[in-house]
Amino acid sequence: MQKFAIYPVELASGTVAISPIPGRSGDFPGDLRTILKWSPSLVLTMTTSAELRAAGATDLPIRLHEVGVGWLHLPIVDFGAPHGETAAFWPTASAKACEVLAGGGRVLAHCWGGHGRSGMAALRLMVESGVAVEDGLERLRKVRPGAVETEMQMRWAREGSS
């Protein structure tokens, strides 16, 4: 199994980061400890509920809440981009994330592998914060090669610049 890791990028006064889903490594408690040691103020879960179950991470929102870490669920299928209710919820999620970042906090976005959906969310936050799409993607891929996997994800991330 791949070792769990967090891939951070400075943004605004804070830090946005991407990671795989905790538990994918086969060690949910250990992955959760790594997340908590990193001290996020907000965690964005970009996976489906089925993926949370598959990783043994269904307790993630409870465990984060117990220690005062915010959690938002934006379910998106693997290799996909937000649509429907998830797309409609993005402005709320983005506002909370940008508030955390502006205050010098940390936002962690995760998906199954820590590339596509989480990279897309981090890039969108960067773009909404005024970072040029190409610059943001370069910064993300410097710390996490392969971040943002599909053209659909790139298109959605770019929408933050309009």
Task: Give the strand line-up of the largest sheet.
Answer: 1-2-5-3-4
Question: What is the H/E string?
Answer: EEHEHHEHEHHH
Radius of gyration: 14 Å
Describe the global form: globular
Q: Distance N terminus to C terminus?
A: 40 Å
Question: Mind telling me the CATH class?
Answer: Alpha Beta
Number of structural units classed as domains: 1
Percentage of residues in DSSP E strands: 15-25%
Q: What is the name of the CATH architecture?
A: Alpha-Beta Complex
| CATH homologous superfamily classification | Protein tyrosine phosphatase superfamily
| Rounded mean pLDDT score | 96
Number of helices: 7
CATH topology: Protein-Tyrosine Phosphatase, Chain A
Ranges where pLDDT stays below 50 over 5 or more residues in a row are: none
Q: Strand count, sense and closure of the main sheet?
A: 5 strands, mixed
Alpha-beta classification: alpha/beta
Oligomer: single chain
Q: What portion of residues is helical?
A: 40-55%
Strand segment count? 5
